[in-house]
Specification:
globular; 13 helices; DUF4253 domain-containing protein; 2 domains; 4-stranded mixed sheet; 38% helix; 8-stranded mixed sheet; alpha+beta
Length: 381
Amino acid sequence: MTTTRRGISADQLLAGPRGRRMLLDFAQEFGREADVADRHPLDSAAFDASYRLAKLAGRSITRFGWPPVDPEEIPSATPADVAAALATSPLPTPTPELLRSCLASSVDAAMYWQGPDGDDLLCADPAVREALRRVADRLCAAPASAWLAGGFEPGRQVILNWQEAQDPPPCPAVAVLGTWRDAVSEEEAVARRERPTDPAANWSGEWWSTPPHGLPVTCGELFDGTPSGLWFVEDALGWDRATARRVAVPSGARVFEIDGAEDWASLCRAHPLEVTALRRHDWYRATGGFREPGWAGRWLVPDWAAVAEHYDAVHLSYAGYLSAAGRAIPVEGAVPGDPACSLIAGWNPDATYWLTDLTDRGGEAVPWRRVEDADGDHSWV
């Protein structure tokens, strides 16, 4: 069932890398709309400072611009310059469509198999983060942001079938969960024996923390009736055609709502599954900062097979995603020994993973396709 919620808060948007990235994108929209020959001061400062941070942090990156720039030259722009520009830059008028576009850009930029890019490093700088509060206050005060405070809505759930995907036939959820837990436990044991314990070692593997592939995943509908899952996809593959079917949510379904880091931590605390050897290298890089190491200790994810004994589904709200995805989330008291953390990685905002079978998927099949306008902007029709 749905609950009455307050609007999303500035603190929530500033807490996580995806929220901060969305705020910077929103602030830069004014410069994109301005019909000027030169770049807007905020755009110019952010472009150069982001590149500078990425290069100094050792990221593999190059840049192009007009007039032509030396790709090896490191600009002098600093986060302080960006913070100063944010303090005085005019801000655009928030609209639901603009906020959707900014959120989609932030989701598309999420990466958990490497270190943060220049924009994420820039937004994490204390001076820039504080300057973004002005942007967050404006966004949160606008009625156009009301949908970002939404939670699970049982009457508006749809399931998407992507034309390009090659999904296997559905299996019973209990079988999918049991197979997954056995596989993770076995793979973790093998990784402990075979993988280096140095978290900075050049090693990569599975980096997501979602429930296993093969379970039903639904999403809600946005303010214009489009399924949210069309717009917000981490690690997107560029698919542009899907079919949406309305799903009848079982009466009395027990849905766990992830509204922030503590909700996720409580799942890990109650149902811990250790994945340190499997995730340490990717997640160490993903949670690092500018010349700062990431979390090098133990890593946990929720044991989804155990969670299924208490809940039918788990929903990640927009607030939960924007405030917590990509952060090393402390999980205190989950297992004896050293402190542990977890990571929300690979989730799409407003996604609901079902830990039980959804038998009623008989809604009308509505085809959707992505189109591009003359300005290069995308929409779904």
